[in-house]
Protein 1
Amino acid sequence: MARAHTKQGMPHLFSGVIASALVAAALFAAGMVAVHREHTTILSTAPELFPLKNQGLAFQGAAAHAPNVLPLYGSSELTALRVPERANVFFRTAPTGFQVSPVGAGGMPPLIILQKVGALGSALRGKKLAISLSPNLTAHPAGRKAYEGNFSLMAASELVFGTALDFDLKRDIASRMLNCPITVEKSPLLEFAVRRLASGRWLDRVGFCALWPIGKVQNIVLEMQDHFAALAYIQHKIKPALPRHLEEIDWPKLIAKENVLRTTDEDKTKESSSLGEQKAPGSRDVAFRTDMNAGLGWTDLELLLRTLASVHARPLLLSMPFDGQFYDQTGVSRSARESYYQRLRALAQRYHFPLVEFKGHDEDPAFLYLHKSHLTVKGWIYYNRALDDFFHGRVPES
């Protein structure tokens, strides 16, 4: 009797295995189609900036594999729609042989950027990319709302359960991620893994290693969801790529044209409204240096540079300058602000990464809008020239 039941159960088990194998094969085939479409439509998607690109990794991965695309990671300066000269628009038709693929949103801090870089891992090996830094986000970490709004469960999970970074670097990153625990709490598996990583104890390390295979399964599921979402985006929202027009850009002429422009009415309003609030020169220098040196943003920035070095990427660091006139009026002198540029330069040199800090425009009223970290037309022209020089192997100028 038992043998008869066994014989009856075997066909059902065999049928279940076959069905599961067919489903897995179908999903794998669909995933391959999605990846193929991501790569073949890169000329259309690279210059665009949209939420799925920021939160997922499919489009970022396609840009990383494209030889004529330069990824650019940053914050709200990438979303300033009123500046048509921003890099992704300026290089849309690849006038000098490459496009710029922006990834960023308001308040995106280095800690979020490093999660994306660590998640892409080997895809960035030997890849040129650019990182746009804001002095405010560099010296001070973004608020919790900005971090939460830019957090990507997929990027965090790929970083934690991936193999691109060593355990010590993951431990240091996990410790910083736990400063905003609400983000990892969305996934009990990720939260458990991050807490095991952050503790650094050998028993927790064993627990993390035991959990690692389950984390890899989670990553596979998230990757498939990301590729299917990317395929849907391509099918319904993709626009044809603009034709390429290779041309020689006269950078000195462009810059000279922008240098003769006067400050905007917005800048004039700022200057006139600030005169009554002007403080004694250097009166806030001590407080500025104290806050800047104590800022946890430096920890996050160094973790980002360590991550870039670990995945063997080839980054260019671009730092927007301070709005010097605004800081002068609020009691922070140029010499105090110089300490930021010096510290940033020393950090870049430690990892042998090229840096353009644009400190020569610290008191240039036409470089930034108001006292925010948003580039004007002139600011973007300088950014674009640095990106063009970097991509073509020339030394970027500030």
Note: The two ends are 85 Å apart (CA to CA).
Protein 2
Amino acid sequence: MRKQGDTLLVSCYELGHQPFQLASLYALLRQAGYNPAVVDTAVEPLSDETIRQARFVAISVPMHTALRLGEQIARRIRALNAETHICFYGLYASLNEEYLLQGLIDSAIGGEFEEPLLKLLAALEDGASASIPGVSTPQHSSQPWLQRAPLVQPRRSVLPALDRYARLELNGATRIVGYTETTRGCKHTCQHCPITPIYRGRFFAIPADLALADIRAQVKQGAQHITFGDPDFFNGPAHAMRITSALHREFPGISFDATIKIEHLLKHRHLLPELRANGCAFVVSAVESLNNDVLLRLEKGHTSADIVEAFALMEEAGIALRPSLMPFSPWETLESYLQLLSFFEERHFIEHVDPVHFSIRLLIPPGSALLNAPDAWQWLGKLDPAAYSYRWQHPDPRMDNLQQAISVLVEKAQRAQADPIETFFHIKALAFASAGREMCLSCSINDYGKRKVIPHLTETWFC
């Protein structure tokens, strides 16, 4: 499999970024003597000829959307090239391996996938059939591989140019965005997070010199802003600050964003001014809900009061806080959802949130920690393997109906590139109607007043 095209690496979706996992794996395989073809189907076509030539295909599935798209690609590959070995690797590969290995793919690798994937390739070349730690097959199930990966600097020259991906919108202008990671896994165990059943509270630091070399290469390719894609940038705050300080010294005009827990923003508040001085344009934080019962059940590590405090701290530091939300779960209520909307409207925070976040419904993948919730029997349904999630039903039917209506609304608004503020108030009108209340839509829009311009990426989907 060392001829050009015998091995094929495919990415389907990485939140509008040039795919880090593809660039990283490509570099490692080249170092090992392989010469894989690389295709990012988010921005370029995958030809029938490329599929027919491949003897081994590795498809990156780091998130739910990528898995959904990856399954479609795998079925196409299977139809065109029945003999090729198809491997899914990434977070959602292990979670859904039981379903995926029933005829769709040949192997699944989760956790730190690089070493198991290299061993799998070597075994296939040798015609070996022995089980490989970290690699699940129809004949052998393996736990996710959680040993430190043999990391090398990603090679991005084979990928589409950065200007074909999401941009940063900042102060009325757009910037080309690069992407890298400084850690993998997460030391926290939020109950709904898909990282929890895979890494179980562990994380691995990527050497600072590798992260900086990756940034340097992307700046040469035109990057003007860097997204740090760690599940939590402050899993290792000293490590994170060393990297951002070095970034700012070498490239003082480059801005960046990162994902940081509310809990960490409060605990490490003394670092926020330095983070801003180093070029931080905004921080994404998984707020999820303002309902303290929901936050407790999810083991988020913060309360609604903490969220209010975090917004104040970030405003004082001059860094925009962009919350991600998951407002539809079995424990959210219609009243608490209305309170969530009021929070963003009354504090003039609507611009901080992409409208899609007001529609997000809890996903419960196989292996989720939520399967062990003491009250799961009250709301948890059967596994729907083709949807990669357990079904669940809200005890208040109005909430399920509202979520479906809002999902349709925001998808239409996204396609039409509608005004996000107007979309928010259409969401509010749907919520009011669910509660049997009336509101003046045009009055609400007109009364909102002057709008803020918050730094954000042009890619709005977060799952």
Note: The longest strand covers residues 280-288.
Protein 3
Amino acid sequence: MDTAVIGKGLIGGSVEKAALRAGFRAEVFRGRAEVPDLSSFDIVFVALPPSATVPKIRDVFRSGKLKEGAAVVDIVGVKEAIVRELSLCPGGPGRYFIPGHPMAGKEKTGYGNSCENLFDGASMILTPYGGTPPQLLERLEKYFSALGFARTVKTSPEAHDRLIAYTSQLCHIISSAYVRNPLSARHSGFSAGSFRDMVRVGAPDPDVWTELFLANAKALLPVLDGYIGRLSGMRDAISSGDAAALHAILERGVEAKKDMQA
């Protein structure tokens, strides 16, 4: 599938490079420029920050520059807000918007850090509209596999946002708060894998992650409140010297890890 990417950042650049590696024609365009001629491309990725994604997708569909049968896919990490705003996207017959979210990234952003293997082994999440042709989704699944994705997961926007609040956004919040401890500046010689894992992410682009956290507040706040409550329970047990309570809390963590799906 010939691939156009609007947005020359980490994800956009990696889509371009992964598509080229797979043998597809691929071209990347800057997000702030006018909509280019997209009439020769089978798939168009809009790889822009959340606030820029909706207006750009509207511009793409209204431009009349899309190929018939083309799929437009976004990469925003919140889906319900995007789907709600674009539910009446004026694409015309035979042109489809398919909300997407590649589960891949790096702690460093920008096109210079993009790479052809960013998506190897990752999941591509789609939240397609009800009228999306099944044969198009099948083509996209094969396409994403060629780019290195291990699986394509299809779900609802609401289910996506609930799970992403926990598996992604909460992790960035924890990492950002953790690294702000003054002791982090003195970690050398006293840190190993657990420290590196904790500080690796931490919302590397504050502009983008501020948008994502606020756009997904409905799903994120209950997850964050639950985490804070569990931390408070551990703090209370440590503060009171209650070894039995602390041991029971840690045991519940061990059991929860056993129940995790691979």
Note: The chain has a mean pLDDT of 93.
Protein 4
Amino acid sequence: MDKKINIAVCGANGKMGQEVIKAVNAADDMNLVACVDINNGQFSSIKEAKEANKIDILIDFTQPASIYENALFCLNNGISIVIGTTGLKDDQIEELEELSKKNNLGCLIAPNFSTGAVLMMMFAKMASKYFKNAEIIELHHNQKKDAPSGTAVKTALMMSEENESFINGNCPEKETLVGARGAEAYNNIHIHSVRLPGYIASQEVLFGSSGQILTIRHDSMNRECYMPGVIMAVRYINENKRFVYGLENIMD
């Protein structure tokens, strides 16, 4: 067998981090060398973990407030990174892409690692060729800190590549309660965020035209559904030292 990939998991004590650890330990081509978490982790920082171990790839499932700095540290210190944490801004993503290319390191950012959710996004992009009106509703557990979700933002971005506006024929609007129409994303796509206990992660994209509605929906029932995508991303980045934004770009 070829040399195993040395993996560090950041956010190791979180719910997603724990699932990632199980998946890495189950992969015969990977070696878990560091569990990083500010809350009673094996290591409290990536820097500390790097000083103790050789890390090929770091998998990050932390918080929107820390992901950018985590990614900068990795790409400036010889560590490729797979990012599942959402909340990165467009200009931050652009800078990480530049660093990835400059330092010849892999950086894969995926707003969603569920293959079903990625297919939902791809189907939404396809439908955008044929519908001129659409909105997105995303529903998550009430411990999710960022809104809208990274999946919703990425979906809107993909849809915007196929259509210049998604509010064609709408009458002039006035919100009697601020925010009633949700956030306005790329090319006038409205995104509505729901936060309730009981959900893990769900999203539906609604398309409308005269006489018909098309709904494309995906629901995650547990966090295990993300793990095949995470492992796929790690293996891809190990072989391809490049920047990738979206799991759809490596799915055959």
Note: The first helix runs from residue 15 to 26.
